[in-house]
Amino acid sequence: MELKMRQGYEGTGPGAITPDGCAVELYTRLPVGNEPDVIAAAVPAGAHILELGCGVGRVTHPLLERGFTVTAVDESAEMLERVRGARTVCGPIEKLDLGETFDVVMLASFLVHAGDPEVRRGLLRTCVRHVAQDGCVLIQREGEDFHTRVPREWVDPAGFTVRIVSAEPAGDGANSIHVEYAFPDAIWTQTFLSRPLTREQFEEALEEAGLRVDRYLTEDGTWVRAVPGDG
Known about the structure:
Shape: globular
Number of strands: 12
Largest sheet: 7 strands, mixed
Strand content: 25-35%
Helix content: 10-25%
Radius of gyration: 17 Å
Order of helices and strands: EHHEHEHEEHEEEEEHEE
CATH topology of one domain: Rossmann fold
């Protein structure tokens, strides 16, 4: 079943495009960064990780190689077809209820900045619903200047260019972000809604969901380890 594009989200370029504007082929080309190192340093060896919004497995596969067990969740069947070696679950993250808990729940890809606050609340409730009482939730936040340092671009060592073209107000505190990925043989674009969150607003959102910050894992504050509020 083909999923309808979300309002305010759009993607262009070769291949399948998911409802939030992500191009499947693009994500198969994007290299993994330091995410596996950050995650591995923050959680017990061999932990069972629930990865929310796994995409094509860009982070999933390195985690499997490090000995973690991963249950990978995404709403796009086309994305999940690229995942190898993990249990996969297809469906909306904010409605997920697997009836089990995990050592680690991971909410990466800036999903906590969902343009719709109700979606963000749903995502965080899913995290709380699935994390073991002595477990943790790893969340990736946007950089402090994500919405203000625009336009900007950089060339990845793999040979493609990323351009954050614009961040325009879209109403109700959210911004419309437009990004371009230029490869020698193809260009993809993505437009999506993102809600800026100060550190205080982010921590308030966690508290509302029943989580608290255990520690910030990176100097720039983009990776966070949270635990159940009474944990």
